[in-house]
Amino acid sequence: MIKHAAFLGLSLTVAACSIEAGHELDRGTFGNATLNNSQVMSGEQNYAIQLAKRFAEEVPSTINFEFDSARLDANARAVLDQQAAWIKQFPEVRFRVFGHTDAVGSAHYNKSLGLRRARAAVSYLSTRGISRSRLEAVVSYGETQPLIATQGRERQNRRTLTEVSGFLKRHPSLLDGKYAQVVYREYIASAVPATTMTTEQSLPASSQ
């Protein structure tokens, strides 16, 4: 009986150890579990997620490409112009650009093509005044994450995706953890209030 109980206890211990502690905390969004916990404690992760949602809602985050091409057409450049204008308003924020392809061609070739597309987007954003140091990663998923499940040519799968990835750790405005002020900052254009003052010449004679 004692041997049986000991064996049962050992089995339960092994089964419990087979589930990695903290595994469910790491969704792959902001790195490993330790980094995830650190960001949750500081509030950075919540604010980064809010800012990522805001970016996705306020500007197009995706551009598309012709077949077997990393050339930016007029539509892609117009979208990247919108992205650059938005990004400029948040100098404390980092971004990632992910490249994708359709399923035509070998996996190795498509991995390279996806990377060329991501680099093309990053290069264009840099010509619009965005520092490459803020575009922290250029990643290619090749053909592994299609929007449309098909083995043929599909424009929607030939794309890059730009998204918020976090905050610049040493930016002066964030050294005291004021992430909320960044997230809720109004656009530069809308931050200038309309004047309510009138010139002396426009005032009625009775008020002068």
Automatic annotation (TrEMBL):
Location in or out of the cell: Cell outer membrane
Record keywords: Cell outer membrane, Membrane
Secretion signal span: none
Domain OmpA-like, residue spans: 52-168
GO cellular component: cell outer membrane
Annotated Pfam families: OmpA
Stored PROSITE patterns: OMPA_2 (PS51123), PROKAR_LIPOPROTEIN (PS51257)
SUPFAM superfamilies xref list: OmpA-like
Protein name as catalogued: OmpA family protein
Organism annotation: Parasedimentitalea maritima
